[in-house]
């Protein structure tokens, strides 16, 4: 057998194997999607099958009873504001950290980097937020997410800003531009793609999280979608069709984001893989 | 002198402020509170030395939680990285359906852990989909009481996590593979190198940055595990699947805050002690290659 034919055969075998393996991923997800359109008795068979009759009413019922409209807006507010705060503060910090090249700046870089490693101390964070007087509020959650994501964002921005030649800044300084002008008119336009990557990474991790809302959002009217789903799951543990519909609706925003913003996610992953 | 005046430090302040107030400060006062009898129902604080830590190591449930956390971390690190590399190599070949397959394997990792855990709950019952499927293909002997057998439950939770997140590791490995120049492989083919020696002499060393970042991400993520256990088992049956994350929630609920903080301090110490030498070691190796 010639080399190319051997290679083609090998590729066929690998492809068939991977297609079969992909069923392990697809089947549970399809069970959730099909199940979300079934009646409450049909879904209990937990089989991979198309629903006998498509019950679109499951979705409207869940949306009303699960309080999802409110939860969606809460999630949007929390993820939106915390990613914006994170983008502005982290890109500004990374800009100075990269350009200074002093002992202090490399110490501060390591200081931020520790945030990627260390686990957060939840109980004492609650204490700090209580001292500040906004425990239980959406504001507290926004600041906590902004803080938790600083490390990752500074890391990503630093890698990118290093590749922007310092000569660009220097020309602007010679023309009499102020440091803020350099940052907002030269650096900011160049890091727009990184902003997108950071925004999407922060959005996805914050949207999907249940830990912080569980500890910090004491009032159910402030809950985000995953936490509402968890609560709904406890209350309606028999109506799996409604639970599945709830899960699908919670996943829709990140799925849509993924479909439209794939290339920014890939560039974030590449930064990690190549720079290490 | 010039750079100093051009790039003033005040642009760092907002990030530093948020990070210090909401992350560093809690960590520092946590260190202090770990050595106190801080409780919900007590007005005053007393310094009690190492008592909290002594109590942690004499309490069976807490020791089990520490053990489970390490089991979960090790199993998921191995599973996610071995499978992640394998998938990435497979999907880096010229396959017709490679884009579709990449999207499929990656897709669970963008969903919430909560969603995946709830989807798996009915499937993992003793009379659930997975056992029924195993029976149908004649592998009924491998059926398990996945979530109710205390001796395997933490492994089940780890498997679900591997199922969900391997695609994320795969994507990082794919990016790493694509940065390796094709010429190395052409040269290896000309020299008549076999598949294994190509993998171990070319792919693996050149993939080192991606391996580094993935090992760190999976290890640290594994030690911080919370949501998977919280939703799938709630720490049960009994306390069989408690991990540090769920124990902290329990301690918080019971009002034994000093104790909960002490457990967190222990986790902090474990993560730092394990990951920092690993980070330094891997950096060195990377440079040497």
UniProtKB/TrEMBL annotation, chain A:
InterPro entries: MetI-like, MetI-like_sf
CDD domains: TM_PBP2 (cd06261)
Compartment annotation: Cell membrane
Keyword Cell wall biogenesis/degradation set for record: no
Membrane topology: Multi-pass membrane protein
Family listed: Belongs to the binding-protein-dependent transport system permease family.
Keyword line: Cell membrane, Membrane, Transmembrane, Transmembrane helix, Transport
Every ABC transmembrane type-1 domain range: 72-261
PROSITE patterns in the record: ABC_TM1
Lineage: Bacteria, Bacillati, Bacillota, Bacilli, Bacillales
Transmembrane feature ranges: 12-38, 71-98, 107-128, 134-160, 239-261
GO cellular component term, pick one: plasma membrane
Location, primary (coarse class): membrane
Protein name as it appears in the record: Raffinose/stachyose/melibiose transport system permease protein
BP GO terms, sorted: transmembrane transport
TrEMBL record, chain B:
GO BP terms: transmembrane transport
A Pfam family annotated for this UniProt entry: BPD_transp_1
Principal subcellular localisation of the protein: membrane
SUPFAM superfamilies found in the cross-reference section: MetI-like
Listed GO CC annotations: plasma membrane
Keyword flag Methyltransferase: no
Localization, UniProt: Cell membrane
Its membrane topology: Multi-pass membrane protein
PANTHER family, alphabetized: ABC TRANSPORTER PERMEASE PROTEIN, INNER MEMBRANE ABC TRANSPORTER PERMEASE PROTEIN YCJO
Family named by the database record: Belongs to the binding-protein-dependent transport system permease family.
Protein name: Raffinose/stachyose/melibiose transport system permease protein
